[in-house]
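Example 3.
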Amino acid sequence: MEEETLMDVGVGINKETEVAPALISVHPLEKSVAVAIGSQLRVYDLQGDCCINLVDDSGGNQHTGSIRAICYGAKGSLFASAGDDKLVKIWSTDSWHCIRTVCSEKRVTAVAISHDDLFVTFADKFGVVWVVGLDGICNETNNKPTSLFGHYCSIITSLEFSPDGRFIISADRDFKIRVTVFPEKPLSGAHEIQSFCLGHTEFVSCVAVVASPELPEGFLLSGSGDCTVRLWDITSGALLDTCDVSAQAGVREPSEKEDAFSSAVTDICAYPNGSIVAVAVQGLQGVLLLSCDLFAKTLSVIKVVSVGETLIPTSLGLNSSAEHLWMITGASNLPALDDPSFARVRVVSGIHKESKGSTWSDPIVLEDSKIPGGEKLLEKLQGSVSIAKEEQTLAAVAEAVNMAMRNLLIKREYSSEKRELRKKSRNDKKLKQ
Amino acid sequence: MKGNPKSNNTTGLPRKRFYRARAHSNPLSDSHFPVPTAPSEVDYASHYPHYYSSEGTCNENGESTIDSKGAIHKPELKKIQFADVGCGFGGLLISLSTLFPDTLMIGMEIRDKVTEYVKERILALRETNPGQYQNVSVVRTNSMKYIPNFFEKGQLLKMFFLFPDPHFKEKNHRRRVISTHLLDEYAYTLQVGGIIYTITDVEELGEWMKDCLARHPLFEAVPEKELDVDPVVKLLSSATEEGQKVARNGGQTFLAVYRRIALSEIENGV
């Protein structure tokens, strides 16, 4: 909670210097790739092989706070960015003009674009999901978001549409995943809950949908602070399979598991045919690949792909052909570093099942010069090509991101003395005097 | 029950003065009490030991039947069908327990001490009235956050919201237990035809609750005629501690009773 963070005397977090993890998102047809770091949005045009200068003539403000969520629409013609500055900016990916700037009342934690490109939904830190219609001329009345539904006062960590577009799926830090029917007229609210996917025992950090041509209605994948990735039936909310990833993340002692954060799942990406799931885990260097059998409804670990350095990805990106798995590690507002923001982009290719049998191909971690867009892309997205590769920097990033996530999502327990102390510093009480 | 210093010596019932609690509790704060991860994890055996053994089977008609093909049919386990949200000292539950002896019902209360009181009260009643009050229990939880953890879709027949905290200040309206967003969740747990009962002695809150329910597409008002013959409606003000207090002081109450309807019904009806 925002208020909670502000008055948090024990941990001492300053809103301005909160570390925000770097994010990456890939155009569904790999026409472009976008990176958000701090308040900066960096986009590289892979089709034209050039850097993109974002043009903002929507009349709204620029991003000034950390961007917390980015996404492309399913067709790739729209892109949305939102975050701590309470702005939701919607971009046309043809020209990279900002076509809309929507003001939120609270800080934004997740954003999703409906499959028909007609609505943008976003969630705030108070657990309310809002919707804005995109058709028609932008004026003051239709640029005002209306509330769609709410998780009662819980930070919403992830927002996705089901593959068929019928449902909107939201996950929160109270272990809940809610599947809501996305109505024909969303501006009057989404009141019909299809299901709740319950089973996680810690905050849910990310959700992703997975579908194949044979199973177009698809399934839901979720990652959580309880070190598991779970597979769900979207319509019934039934838990189909659970995959514990703590062993891969190097949690050997059962006692270590008590500290849930050593291996919280941070991001999930499903390959379009639904057979492979890429998972980023706190404390895991590289990316974990899971095999997903949609007919048997099972998840199993394939292997960990190490990217050759002590790189723990903060975000993953994949396009619909799934040729390249993009990953980024980085953060803004890093303490004790020369440059407060740091980003490192890597690309892995060649992840697929061998045509015969059940063996898996050896994924190739692409050299910087071999990745799509090459060093020009890296210069744009990372800020510089020759990034300091020292393990120290990467370790500092991992540590800072881990701490930021912990502060954001874990529920703090206070001793009774500390609670009294916090009550004394309540700002609403002070006002009364 | 004997020897419990907090209980009345003759009736065995707990005495309220040992369970005093603050009247308000902040529903927005993080909860640190245990919550079942899913409805299937609700510990029915501890709530309804008469109906459930610790192995999770039904005691009443507990024998499994074997059909002609030799397949074993376990009797359908009873599920909770009434929920009293913010049950307070449990007056309504105790009255409902004997009125609907075959229905499992639960009170949900956020205040720890009050929950303890209701727990002791139920245990004492079970002891002094053998065979009765086995269908009623209480749990300490924040129902504004965890309703879906306790009940499956369409599980409940009746939900009660009696004399909820009015949260007068506008900035605290989001703490009210009836709101458009929360009604979505209540509609999810109620089966079509299920009824939501609300009552308050605060006119402003009464208007608010009625307004939220009237505007919600999944609820419709229960007609006056039906209210007159519904035995539960009379209990709303007479059985609850808050209701009795209002009656003592000659206060007014504001009732809103709505039925859960299917969304398609409205679409077809138009």
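Residues 165 and 226 of chain B are 27 Å apart (CA to CA). The longest strand of chain B covers residues 190-200.
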